[in-house]
Amino acid sequence: MSKLPNKRALPSREAGQFKELLNLYESRQLKKGLKTADLILKKFPEHGETLCMKGLVLVHMGRREEGIDLVKKGVRLDLTSHIVWHVFGLIQKGEKNYEEALKSYTQALRFEKENINILRDAASLQTQLRLYDALVETRHTLLRLRPNLRQHWVALSIAHYLNGNTKDAKAVLESYLSTLKNVPPHDVEQSETLLFYITLLEELGEHSEALSVLDSNSRSRAIVDRTAVSETRARLLTKLGTPEAEEAWHTLLERNSDCYDYYAGYLSNKGHTLTEPSPAALQIVSDLAAEFPRAKAPKRLSLNLSTGDEFKARAEAYIVTALVKGIPSLFSDLKSLYADPAKKDAIEEIVERLREHYKKETAAPSGSEEPTTYLWTLYLLAQHYSSLGKHQKALELLEEALEHTPTLPELHTFKGRVLKRAGDYLGAARCVNDARVLDGQDRFLNTKTGKYLLRAGMVKEASNVLGLFTKKDASSPGADLEDMQSMLYLLEEARAHEKNGHPNLALKKYMAVKKIYDEIEDDQYDFHGYCLRKFTLNAYVRMLKWEDNIRGQASYVTAALAASKIFVAAHDNPNLVKSLSSTSEELTDAAKKAKKKAKKAAVKAVEEKKNAPTAGATHDDKGIEPQSNKDDDPDGLKLLGAPDVLDQAAKVLAPLTTVAAGSVGVWCAVYDVAVRRGKVLQAVSALGKAKGVDAESPEVHVRIVDLKLREAKLAEAAKENVKEIFVEGVKKLYPGDVGVETFNSQYLQRGEGRAESVLACARVLVLLGAPQEEVDNAVFELLAGERGLGVKDAVKALEFLRSVKSAREEDFRAACDARFELSTAFKSKEEQAVIREGVMTRGPNGGKDEAVTP
Question: DSSP labels for 435-493?
Fold first, then answer.
């Protein structure tokens, strides 16, 4: 055994105390541990390992800064000790700094190559960082050290699988399975291992072998998950093309006759799909519908597979059954059929005919139909016409339905949706609030009302409504919803703040969404060890694949793009933060009172927490992770005014380049940030990828012109080896023999008058420094003739005119107000203020809504 360095060697008494210190830390007896560390340091103040352990104990006791300083001092005093590096790695891991933590663990393993605890922690960090090559090596070392633990065999197999070496993963499991003897029956861990082994065989294309292993182990009850056995067996038999496949899928249908996946498997075995109309597939589904008369799935699938008169007959029977039962979600069930125009027209014809029939039956004294059937028919028909953009007709049907039954919340909520689609966000919020008043205990209606109020820009009113169902001891409803990771609330409030001209507050909410995704990614760390201990192998692998693509979800993409846009705006306008600071200081009396009340609540909560007696006070363990600090930037002005806004934008966008590479908006946002950071090659590459996704995108057109106008300046600033590549990249994006004005005109002609294309060309005119009159005329072209100008495009056009300070902004607003009669988006500020006052003071019966008082 090698001799310990002088600084590390302790006399036997102190060495025993150090071992006791380690045990006290493991059992979280922190106060005793601290006293023990002090006893050692009293005699040996420069003992690095003890200093690190004392620092670790202090971190757990809440004295974080003091503890970290001691750990760093301990590392400096004993750079060759695995203990100090292990402790330092634990501290860094607690701070979610996984890269640095892994470096510390790697350093520790240089001096203690076979330490099981360090190797195990290093493997978890390597999985978290997706360093699968290193993970395989670490898992192999663990297996070599402890070959008697089956967890290590399975962990090495999974490491190979994650690294893309499925054959090696299979070989490891085969070696492990061949050594097993006397496995107890119904062993769940063995069952999960066998299912994972079968998955490997299936992915390698060894279907016969996989089926053989599955059958032998299911008969012996070694695999206890019977549903997994049946599903895997049916899938393998289908891939092998054996006659038994039909029976296997049929067995699954007998077990669950409403599972669409089972119908897909049954039909695919016979060469059909669930979506392509086919007489043969229709006959198969019809036979299954007769066999399972209580199942809804085959009846619904028959609508996908039928056409013409056959479709009409089946659709009418399906719709009538749902209307009689009073199923509110019927339209959601049918709307996927609208992709086929013939089926859409057929549904309209059927429901209109049923409407006339039920109307007569309801009016007749001896009518045989229930009055509610006519009500749900009106509801379905209103949804149908609204989806086609016929909002006026949908509203007429809803008014008729409300006269019939004014107390049905679904009618009020859908009326709100119709008004929202027509551009009347204030009216939509009023209608949804009318529905909420009908049932004040309904959390769904409360949430829906809050959402619609936020879309109308009524942030305070939305907070009051949502606060009816949040914790009463929270500093604010918004804080509680953020703690509950309600991304719907965060995104809607962020949009509301943007709409109200508060990009700083919007940015805070968008970054809160990013923080949620960071936490979701961090939360997977504990599962790297847990899932291997519990042998939930297939679920674990699926979780890792899901985590790899989690930032491709719509909520993160939306938040990241919006946040990067605000960051870019802050970079382009250095006075933005200053102007917002002066605005935020001009608070109303009510706002000042609300802010003061929230501050008092926060102080009270801190004091109560401080004074509250804690269970297990002898341990007093506050964990190794840093405590959440008080938000010193509630208005988001520091965040918006940070000197590294472009770097933050680039960091937010970075994951999207892999998980959302098919989005034009992502690449345009990457270009916006890169070109301002002087990353010319990244900017050209991003714009090239955006053009590859959609060459005729208006956003791409604007940025190609922007790049062309910046070309000379960017090329001059670039290094020689970069300059040539940059210029060649620009040539691929922009035709060199065409002037910018001509290029813009050609795009406008190709756009065929689409609103987005017209606005893009107007934005290019601004970049070119064209006279204001020319820019205005380009935008006003949207109002000419019978162009298909929608409310959303008209709002964008009005915002554009406002941003360029057009003198004709009011003319455009008035013209849109006359054109879109249902919309309140184009009313004057005075008119909108009057309408806003009526949103929360009307109930379905015209009474004042008193339930929103917080």
Answer: HHHH-TT-HHHHHHHHHHHHHTT-HHHHHHHHTTSS-TTSS-HHHHHHHTT-HHHHHHH
